[in-house]
Amino acid sequence: MLRFFDTHAHFEGTDTVSVLDRAMAAGVVRVMAVGGSDRLNTGAVAAAKARPGHVCLALGFDRDQAGLATPDTWCLALRELVVTAGIKLSAVGEIGLDYHYAPETRELQCELFVAQLGLAAEWALPVSIHTREADEDTLRVLDSVAWPHQKPRGIIHCYTGGEAFAEELLSRGFMISFSGIVTFRNADALRRVAAVVPDDRLLVETDSPFLAPVPLRGQTNEPAFVAHTAECVAKQRGCGVSELAELTYQNAVSLLWPQQGGENE
Ligand SMILES: [Zn+2]
Fold first, then answer.
1. What is the pLDDT of residues 188-238, one digit of tens each?
2. Domain count of the chain?
3. Residue 162's Cα: distance from chain center in Å?
4. What is the distance in A from the centroid of ligand 1 to the CA of 158?
């Protein structure tokens, strides 16, 4: 049986248990539940608590929260959340920059991003990063953070950038995760990137409930659908889906689930 690790899914509190049950039934035996706002953080904690053996947790405040409070306030909120959640985090996220939707908040986004990268460095945790139309600032901010205990580690989630940007991120040690966008008809350039990411840096995700992959576009996305993205990426790379599933599963486990090893189910 194929096994998949969906490295990026959001939960909003409705239907969480049945969504996770369908994921398990589809071979998606591990999922990272990812926060980003009060609502998404709460949903992610609930998912991790509902299926602790299968769901790991990322908490953070995403770029759309920039400006709603100061970076210090958000960092304090995140510290408190981590304590009250009572679950070990696998990553800080999602965090990052998006100049497609809100270019006017660039500076605020950068401040919030750098503050939470600082927390990830302090906690020696990987990060789950959203970056869209902000290549230059993403690299500048990443390079501005001092990582006292480690090199930066993490995931560039729902990758939509070009090949040159991917090279820059790979050279800094990041993994690149592809969502259902890679299956979209107009995504030829992205599929070319998916073909060249090194084996040990490749991940797949749903970013559910958004962005359902072809042929399920228009439906509410869920982790069970990650196989369609894996199939598309496998085809681009000229390998089988079982090989791709296992490769990305092992990559995700080594980054996000190191304490449990890759083989224990
Ligand atoms: Zn997301």
1. 999 999 999 999 999 999 999 999 999 999 999 999 999 999 999 999 999
2. 1
3. 18
4. 8
